[in-house]
Design brief:
Layout: E1 3-10, H1 15-24, E2 38-47, E3 62-75, H2 79-89, E4 97-101
Antiparallel strand pairs: 1-3, 1-4, 2-3
Helix pairs in contact: 1-2
């Protein structure tokens, strides 16, 4: 089975909701283990343009917010479902996420 790595950035209070959404969509399984992920703290930055409504901070100025970087694996066949679930569970207007191909050996 081909897998990808899904990485997203989220405020701590939304960590459990976003992880649960991605896991329910098929992510986070490694062998006989489920709900597998990794996360670390960092600082996210953004500048909300005209017409934005940031969940944290305000539009029209550069913001710095405490966030967690979360990583998990997702079967390639389930990545679209995982992204939809992540976006629905995420508090941001435009959640930042990345998808990386993995080489299974």
């Amino acid at each position: 089975m081909s897998r990808v790595k899904l990485v997203w950035f989220v405020p701590e209070e939304a960590l459990d909701a976003t992880r649960a959404a991605v896991f329910d969509a098929g992510g986070g399984r490694i062998g006989d283990y489920t709900r597998c992920s990794w996360y670390a703290a960092g600082t996210g930055t953004f500048f909300g343009g005209e017409g934005t409504a940031p969940a944290l901070g305000e539009s029209g100025r550069e913001e710095r917010v405490a966030e967690l970087r979360v990583e998990t694996v997702v079967p390639e066949s389930r990545i679209r479902d995982a992204i939809v679930a992540l976006r629905l569970a995420h508090p941001y207007e435009e959640p930042a996420y990345d998808v990386y191909p993995l080489l299974d050996q």
